[in-house]
Amino acid sequence: MEPIFNHLPHYLDSENRFYLPTALDVDEREECESDMIREMKNNGDLLRLLFEYNHLIASKAETSFTFNKKFTNSADFDNKQTTQKFESNITKLLCISVITKEDAEGRLNDKATH
Length: 114
Hints:
Elements: E1 11-12, E2 18-21, E3 25-26, H1 29-42, H2 44-52, E4 55-57, E5 60-61, E6 65-70, H3 80-87, E7 93-99, H4 101-109
Parallel strand pairs: 2-4, 3-5, 4-7
Antiparallel strand pairs: 1-2, 6-7
């Protein structure tokens, strides 16, 4: 199936997983995770992008890491009651992989050896 954002520059590995090059400069994993979750709640385009391309190649990162987040998109996350209601009916587990350029090169070059 073609990706939703098929005009974005992206890479495929040997298992046809999408990798998206980014300008992410990651100092701390926890800070990156909380920033990304906050942005996902306010940006529907980013949320769709991350579901499609959940392997992000960080421009600058010390190490690769993955985080999982149960996420339900709500138009009204400022309303605590609404948020709690949606959190009790989680529909999607979002797994985000933030990888270094070196790790990405290893995964993507593996495609050529098959």
